[in-house]
Amino acid sequence: MDVALVCVGDELLAGDTVNTNAAWLGERLAERGVNVERVTVVPDRVADIARTVNEYRAAYDAVVTTGGLGPTHDDLTMEGVAAAVGRTLEPSEAVLERLASEGGYAREDLAAGTADIPAGARPLHNVEGVAPGCVVENVYVLPGVPAEMKAMFEAVAGEFEGEERHVDFLVVDEPESALVDRFAELQERFDVIVGSYPGDDVRVKLQATDETELEAATEWLRANVEVA
Amino acid sequence: MDVALVCVGDELLAGDTVNTNAAWLGERLAERGVNVERVTVVPDRVADIARTVNEYRAAYDAVVTTGGLGPTHDDLTMEGVAAAVGRTLEPSEAVLERLASEGGYAREDLAAGTADIPAGARPLHNVEGVAPGCVVENVYVLPGVPAEMKAMFEAVAGEFEGEERHVDFLVVDEPESALVDRFAELQERFDVIVGSYPGDDVRVKLQATDETELEAATEWLRANVEVA
Questions:
Q1: Angle between helices B46-59 and B77-85 (to 10 degrees)
Q2: What is the ipTM of this complex?
Q3: How many separate domains does chain B show?
Q4: Which of A25, B6, B131, B155 has its Cα between 20 and 30 A from that of A1?
């Protein structure tokens, strides 16, 4: 299963906020064996949201959006997603009922548009806040506030499922350039994906679908490099 | 000036690494009045890098890439960028000379491809590491290791220049939904861009090209909301 994340928000583009949502979702999806193929941050503009969501929902199995939900003028994700799937926005009865019963919000007290989702979409309740998310076709619309986003993702996590992968990390105390030949040999000997991330040391990530294969590869590498 | 950032790396997609490079670059570019229109993370695959760089260099004034530089099998950014601009990769004499004179690296000791950049590109020296960056047409290729990326960006920062903007932040202790009308009035009265970022409180960002206008708008908002 291949997915793309579309993170909406001028504050992410201007660096006012670090995109920890994308890292958290990437990790949770990887745990479920799902490939994240793209993470794209777009501004708070309907046309940009719609165009990006549309391109990715055609190219990948699912799209997850974060951010841009709520009542203010810069909350435009629902409008962008509705445009992407060619639907109108409509208040969700299920959301209005839940906001009344759980949140104590009378309809007339809610800011205009609070319960709007694309027509026919499946609403996702916001157990940590007010603004609802939704699922429409293969697009999952989640909030931007991390606690709200995480709780809402957990409610749909079971709908994301790929091939199980096993992962090991090894920190190596050698320059990355010295490791080129051993990485080549490692990949020749074993059916593993090798990632090499330099910093003060080199962090090596090994991934395999077969656990025994991963263990053998990690053991071989450990015996053939200077482990930090 | 509108730019796009293309961040290369499986580790960013899988959430092993939080994309702090994008936030840092976004902030530095915003300070210079430059709009970041997209941040896209792509996997360590030549075709994906090439396609994304190509799309963005046509759509925006400049593209800045981070990550995927170095000698290992998963360092594919130079190859992707070369493909995007239709050039071959060639060892840079300037880079080889500098690695010898400053780094003490003899040519024969360097891993194959270490000094390769697209033919005719302007090399950018890596004062904090080994792998060079480059500028080719309107594409700036920077490393992924934050200290290396930052030092290399500073060497070209003067090439990024937009309209000066003034920015103020205000933290408001009211629910976001209650602020809708005042945000509308604020935008009617003053020539400012208003961003609203909910969390425990609501963080409001005001931007204007005119400093006096910004001060007046901030003063008006401060007088009309519950400041936290």
A1: 50
A2: 0.94
A3: 2
A4: B6
